[in-house]
Amino acid sequence: METHMEELLRILKELRPDIDFNEKKALIDDGVLDSFDIVALVGEIGETFDVQIGVEGLVPENFNTVQAILGLINRLRDGE
Amino acid sequence: MSLSSASFLIFLVSTVALYFLVPKKLQWMVLLAASYFYYLSYGVKIVGFLLTTTFTTYVGGLLLGELNSRRKIRVKQLGREASSEEKKAVSDRFTGNKKWVVAGILLINFGILAAIKYYNFAAENTNVLLGLFTDASFPKVNWLLPVGLSFYTFQSAGYVIDVYRAKYPPERNFFKFALFVSFFPQIIQGPISRFDQLAHQLYESHAFSFDRLKYGLQLMMWGFFKKLVVADRTAVIVSNVFGNYQKYSGAEIAFGVFMYCIQIYCDFSGGIDIIRGIAQILGIDMIENFQRPYFATSLSDFWRRWHISLGAWMRDYLFYPLSLSKPFGKLGKYARKKLKGNLGKILPVSLVTFIVFFTIGIWHGASWKYIAFGIWNGGIITFSVINAPVYEKALKRLHINPESTCWKLFQILRTTVLVFIGRYFTRGEDLMTALRMLKRTVLHFDLRNLAGNVLSLGLGAFDLLVILVCCTVILGIGYLKERGVHIRKTLEERNMLVQWLVLLAGLAVIAFLGIYREGYIASEFIYKQF
């Protein structure tokens, strides 16, 4: 069974096959992911992890690295 | 008191002097007093609108902050053992109340904006429809138009939404908050700043720094150069061609519109440079509002580089909330099921993009021409998003390397043409005039006519040469900046003689080539009216 990290990486890879997400440390600040990517990513994460990312969660700190995205998912799953 | 008037310069020097002379903890009060003094110079009655926005958004922020704190405490009280469903139920209850508060505050403020900017337009068009059935009609109202209304309303609304989203706690000091809304260099034409980026800088104390003074003055000079030497010069041809377009052939009209493209960029970005330069002298770094839009490779890239703060506002407060809303979420699911391929995936987000650009269009004003401008931008960007995979395939088939310089140059040229066409709408007297000018450009385009008459459009050979040389300088400097060169720092590395020569040459160019009217007052900035 896939871990959450593997699932997230799979979603990201489907979204942007051209990017090595393990390498990148500033996905938003460096403009790697644009607003279209973010909307698609939020939709996919919502369906896969059964969480709802609201606009208040859409800050660069939550999306700059894969770890940060996973942290956001975990916090939402925890009901915070 | 225009940014490029002599009285503004006197006001600025006095403010800066006072700012660095008073005890540091009073500096923000000097800024607040200066900001209101500056705003009052545009009229006493309009201050009521500014105060209403300041007061309502301040109170709204406090209420939302209180609800945020209570929610946090209640969730904490539930303890670690509570299930995520229980925590969510508590959060949802508070979110419901917060929604009422934020909706009320936004309704008041955007209501004022809508009434002042759009009522007459809506009434006029409704009356046309009503006229078909009845004699009743909505009266026309002569509203006072507070300068900077769109700018400070958007900035304050952004603050309220951020507090609603618990991005930061609200500002408790009313007067400090009033400074954030009214900060004088920016209130008239932006940039639309964010509270977490700007406010703390306004409240902190700043020691005088010679470097900041130097950098700030250089930036201001660059702004004055663009405004007084280029924008106000091109304005002569622009007014003439747009005012008497029936007299001119297609090529001459196109030349006039091209001059307007130069004018609007130099006017708006020049104003922003002056504003950012002033802030820099005061120890405050304001966000960039332009990133060399003339190098944009697509229309969406253009809008990421032009009036950046408005685009970012629309992204954070309109694009994301709409894209992630339930109705659009449902539409997305439906589209993915019913439509195969790329279109199914991006239909909702494309629709939101269209709405955003449509809104940016009407942000500029209430007129059919701005609606057309919004549809033009929104339509093209949405179309290119939907067809992106088709373009990719076509490039591969034609063996075109998308990274090659030739392709990039083609993209820049293509974008320039699209922006150029959009400018017919923003500057044309009204929608029909813009369309007639566009028609004339296409159907009666004769370069020989332009070559023969270029000197009779309002400017002589010398002035046209000045525009050409200045635009080359602006493009050259822009190119260096695109390549990551920090112009002001590079200049600093040269010896003092070179630095002084550049400074004096700049001053001389502004002094001798700037367009001044009686009393050394230059023309107003175009974006002030928005």
From TrEMBL, chain A:
It comes from the Bacteria. GO terms for molecular function: ligase activity. Keywords: Ligase. It is an enzyme of class 6 (ligase). Signal peptide: none annotated. PROSITE patterns: CARRIER (PS50075). This is D-alanine--poly(Phosphoribitol) ligase subunit 2. Its EC number is 6.1.1.13. Residues 1-77 form the Carrier domain. The gene is dltC. Gene3D superfamilies: ACP-like.
Automatic annotation (TrEMBL), chain B:
It is an enzyme of class 2 (transferase). It is found in: Cell membrane. Pfam families: MBOAT. The chain crosses the membrane at residues 42-64, 100-121, 141-164, 346-364, 370-388, 454-477, 497-516. Its main location: membrane. GO terms for biological process: alginic acid biosynthetic process. GO terms for molecular function: acyltransferase activity. InterPro entries: Ac/AlaTfrase_AlgI/DltB, AlgI, MB_O-acyltransferase, MBOAT_fam. GO terms for cellular component: plasma membrane. It is a multi-pass membrane protein. The keyword Transmembrane helix applies. Keywords: Acyltransferase, Cell membrane, Membrane, Transferase, Transmembrane, Transmembrane helix. Signal peptide: none annotated. Its EC number is 2.3.1.-. Belongs to the membrane-bound acyltransferase family. This is Peptidoglycan O-acetyltransferase. It comes from Ruminiclostridium hungatei. The gene is patA_2.
